[in-house]
Write a structure and sequence with these properties.
The complex is a heterodimer of chains A (174) and B (174). With 174 residues, chain A is α+β, with helices and mostly antiparallel strands. Chain A has a domain of 116 residues: Peptide deformylase (Peptide Deformylase), CATH 3.90.45. Chain A is built from three helices and seven strands, in the order αβββββββαα. A five-stranded antiparallel β-sheet of chain A has the order 1-2-3-6-7, with helices on both faces. In chain A, a hairpin with a 2-residue loop joins β4 and β5. Chain B folds into two domains: 76 residues, Alpha-Beta Plaits, CATH 3.30.70; 78 residues, 2-Layer Sandwich (Alpha-Beta Plaits). The two termini of chain B are 37 Å apart. The chains are: A alpha+beta (174), B alpha+beta (174). β4 of chain A pairs parallel with β9 of chain B, so a sheet runs across the interface.
Chain lengths: 174, 174
Amino acid sequence: MAVLEILVYPDPRLKQISKPVTQFDGPLRSFVQDLEETLRAGPGGVGIAAPQVGRFERIIIVDVSSKPKIKHHGRLVLINPEILSQEGSAVGREGCLSVPEYTGNVARSKFITLRAQDEFGKPLEFNMERYEARAVQHEMDHLDGLLLLDRLVSRRDLFRRQTQEATAPKTKTS
Amino acid sequence: MKKWYMLTLVGQDRSGIVAQITRALYEGECNLGEASMVRLGGNFTVMLMVQFAGNEKALDDLIGPTCRSFDLRHHVDAIEGELLHHMEPDVRITVYGADRSGIIAEATGVLAEKGFNILNLESDVGGTTQNPIYVMTIEGIAEQGIEVLEEALQKLSREKGLETQLEPIDTLIG
């Protein structure tokens, strides 16, 4: 196991598009272990994507279980992840291991249905919401060469979005 | 050895202010740091960190001609400044209501009592001339925790007829 070096913007490699994984073998699983060790080595990180360590394959790890009072699926190794459906939008603050000393507000879908494979190639499907869904969307962006810097919204948008949400008609269940 | 200055500019808003001021600073071998530039009530306002080898007078002389051509008032202060030392807000508060005198003083007064450190405050007046509304968003650090702030804001809502929202900011690092 090894802690890998994290690429930091403006490294142009972070803008590269990653390729799907086709071989679910020992070397893949050993890379996944290293990727996880790299994630755990940093303070407070809840996800990491393979291109952040210079491997341009569609592999992400997400684990938001350290956050209190949220719904989550624990530690997830997600290979070739694909969002099948998404709903709602919320603005939240994000930082990135590849963009140190910067945080910004980013709009993400609140609910997603995700299909992926585990490190043995077994198909997975999850319904995710809010924080965990945000983490997955952040990491999946890395696979397409996108950073939070590509998705910033202003604070003024933040208030508009909140009030829109607050005044949106509620569905009643009687 | 270059020193940091805070340059403050105010004047009637016109297009080209930012471009020409920053061009003059660039040609005068200044390095620019963090900035806040915003139009307030028809005035364009700039607070800009400027790193410069000369003294206050020399910086003043450098931008004097551009300021005069735009009819801008300006002010230069030597500051202790550093980049890449951000503080992360952990709470976002929105306060709004029918505009009247005292809203900011009342809201920030109770928040300060409960250990709230403001990092960023933006406010705006919307609505109509007859019925203006005041809208304020504040980001900061809840040094004594969020619960005491929530209680203080609820009391403020009840007693002062203001709408308040508090939302924790849990910055996602991925």
